[in-house]
Amino acid sequence: MEVVLFQQPRAEFFECRLQNGAHKFVADHTPKKLTVRKDRRSLEVTFVDNAAFEYSAEMLRVMSPSAEVKGHSPDQRKTVGGKRNVEIMKMEPVGNYAVRITFDDMHSTGIYSWVLFRELGENHAEKWQAYLDELAEKGLSRDP
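Above: the chain sequence. Below: its structure as tokens.
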């Protein structure tokens, strides 16, 4: 499976006021291309500002924004182990702001917004290490 979704390549910028009172113009978080790799174990997202990030299917599955994983409050969040070999089966657009990913373990309730993809990409190392630390703390494994 190659390119799953194209968005119009447009760079929309909006002004943000930083805490120090300065102004910064930032690119819209809209991707222009989403590509699922042939082995179905990773997804590459390229944004309109040409920033590109690759996400393993495992990372997307264990960090799903679904209520099943995140819960309805921080203390309800679950640490999901055993997903090292999970694959992406299907992706469906959700409006103009997100996609729903179906994994081969049949999890399909997470809606992955463009903002979430950007956040996961920009903070990949920290988020992944925090996940690995949580697994170790709870005696869980990435292996099925």
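The chain has one domain: 3-138.
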